[in-house]
Amino acid sequence: GDVNEYNNYDFFKTVFGPVDLAATIEGPDQALTGETVTYEATLTNHGPDRAGNTALRLLVTGADVLSTTSTGSTGTCSESGLGRWTCSMGALEAEASETATIEVVRGTAGTIKVEASTSLGSGEPELDPDNNSQTTYTSVTLDPEASTVDLGVEVTGPTTAKAGQDGVFEV
Questions:
Q1: How far apart are alpha carbons 30 and 83 in whole angstroms?
Q2: Which of 122, 111, 89, 115 is nearest to 14 (CA)?
Q3: Cα separations (Å) of 100 from 16, 70, 112, 148?
């Protein structure tokens, strides 16, 4: 038998090849208050090697998030903090892409800001960090249909009065 069973192991280190992940985000330039606004974020691996354990991170400011969906292998997006969403994409082959869709709404006039950025959790060297994030802005203006108010006031009471005489009016 083996007198030293503790030396029967072979330890190895996995070496990951370089990758170039890129994030893009697309959405409308303008929207109306109360309107659902849809953004599509894309995570692309420009290679040259496979990227493991990838994610697309979304940061939304100035709007309420209604829903998120992902085409990634895990297919999930989860809230990771106030206005922060992480969409797990799993492994991504070279020259492959995955997308995440996020729907938001803003009730007042102002600006919606959505930032998409890459996340790489497998230790691969990143070749071009300059394309790892992108931001888009949507200007939200008042919906003229929703902001129109039709008010009417009706007053009834005597049509004439003498000085010092009380009159009763109903509004």
A1: 20
A2: 122
A3: 25, 4, 18, 36
Residue 44, C-beta contacts closer than 8 angstroms, at least 6 positions apart = 21, 22, 23, 24, 96, 97
* Predicted TM-score of the model (pTM): 0.76
Query: What count of residues does the chain have?
Result: 171
The C-alpha atoms of residue 23 and residue 94 are separated, in whole angstroms, by: 14
Strand 64-70: give its sheet, edge to edge. 21-26, 37-45, 96-105, 64-70
CA distance 27 to 93: 26
pLDDT in tens, 138-162: 999 998 887 555 556 777 777 777 7
